Amino acid sequence: MSPRPAPTPSQPPTRPSERTVTDLAPYPSPEERERELDGLVARLEGAGHTASIHNYGESVAGRPLRAVRVASKRNEAAARTEPAKVLVCANTHGPEFIGNRVAHGLLEALIAGQPQVAALHERAELWVAPCLNPDGYARTHARGGQGQLRDLRPNERGVDLNRNWPLPPGSRRLPIPGAGSSRSGDATYRGPEPLSEPETAALDALMHEQGFWACVNLHSFMGTLFPARVEDPASFRVYRELCESFTDRQTVHRYRRVASRRFDTYTGEQEDHQHHNHRCWSVCVESFPLRASFRQHLRAPSLFWRFNPRDPEPWVRNEVPAVATFLGRAAERSRPEVRTLRTT
Ligand SMILES: [Zn+2]
To answer: Which residues belong to the signal peptide in this entry (predicted)?
Structure first.
């Protein structure tokens, strides 16, 4: 028997798993992300906050769906009225890791006493659900961010979780791009029926249980704000003001609000459901502007690097005070009035 040839120094043996972990740095692996969240809660407690992790369900593949609750200071002072509860969500789409960084960054900023986050904490109970689609996150990570949108974006059953929400009563969905597809295998497949997925059903149950007053849903990439679609002028005006309060706090990159009262269609997105079915002021934030993404890579080496900045930190700093300001301003208002929509 002849000895096997040893690998030559110019061709070191590499395992794909080692390579993919390096490829997505500085973004954490799923396990690192969960450990980081546990660490943030421990540090919040160490800094004198009342913080806990709330397991609100399980993903299709059995991964825990976790949210952090931080009690309001006002609650601890036994104020007569209950503080408003506000929610930050991220990563409902597998490859949008920057949203998760901003969500964790908000908790980090609370520990550091960042002024806008501290002001929010004075008046509201803060909930952060930093990874709504842990299976999509894990799949994206395992593939080193390679693949098409339809491979990385959905949950484990191929459903786009942000097209799986019920439409507001009396509303309709037009067959336009992005409105959600009825075909399994499409990037925006909306699933067999609204709330068919354990990830959306569990979050909806949490919304019913907690009655959130306001919510920010973190996505990428675009550099835009999409408030819930509303037809009544009063709510439309409130969203304009809330979005202005958001962009006023963005010191480096200010995002554009995309809203219309006339565009008569709904898509099964989370913020519309939250506004119309849960009376919650809600906005979708698409971090990382188009221009910045293309400046980073004219031709991105993977889908992942189209959606995420190489260095998340400047974007976390750009978004965190803005997210806190939006939620704080929304918590000062009364909850949205729900009106019967025009039926067509
Ligand atoms: Zn998204």
So the answer is: none
Q: In the chain, what are the domain boundaries?
A: 21-332
Q: What tokens does 238 get?
A: 């409130």
Q: In angstroms, what is the span from residue 92 Cα to ligand 1's centroid? A: 6
Neighbours of 226 (CB within 10 A): 22
- Please tell me the distance from the alpha carbon of residue 88 to that of residue 67, in angstroms, as a whole number: 9
Ligand 1 centroid–CA 269 distance in Å is 10
Q: Please give the distance, rounded to the nearest whole angstrom, from the Cα atom of residue 165 to the centre of ligand 1.
A: 14
CA distances from 33 to 74, 82, 94, 205, 302 (A): 30, 32, 14, 24, 21
Instruction: Find the 75 Cα to ligand 1 centroid distance in Å.
Output: 33
How distant, in Å, are the alpha carbons of 62, 83, 198, 219, 293 from that of 56?
Answer: 12, 21, 10, 21, 34
Class of domain 21-332: alpha beta
CA of 219 to the centre of ligand 1 (A): 4
Please report, in tens digits, the pLDDT of each residue of the chain (344 residues total).
444 444 444 444 444 444 444 589 999 999 999 999 999 999 999 999 999 999 999 999 999 999 999 998 765 555 557 789 999 999 999 999 999 999 999 999 999 999 999 999 999 999 999 999 999 999 999 999 999 999 999 999 999 999 999 998 888 887 777 788 999 999 999 999 999 999 999 999 999 999 999 999 999 999 999 999 998 999 999 999 999 999 999 989 999 999 887 766 788 999 999 999 999 999 999 999 999 999 999 999 999 999 999 999 999 999 999 999 999 999 999 999 876 554 43
Joined tokens for residue 165: 């929400």
Distance CA 216, CA 219 (A): 10
Give the whole-angstrom CA distance, residue 119 versus residue 82: 16
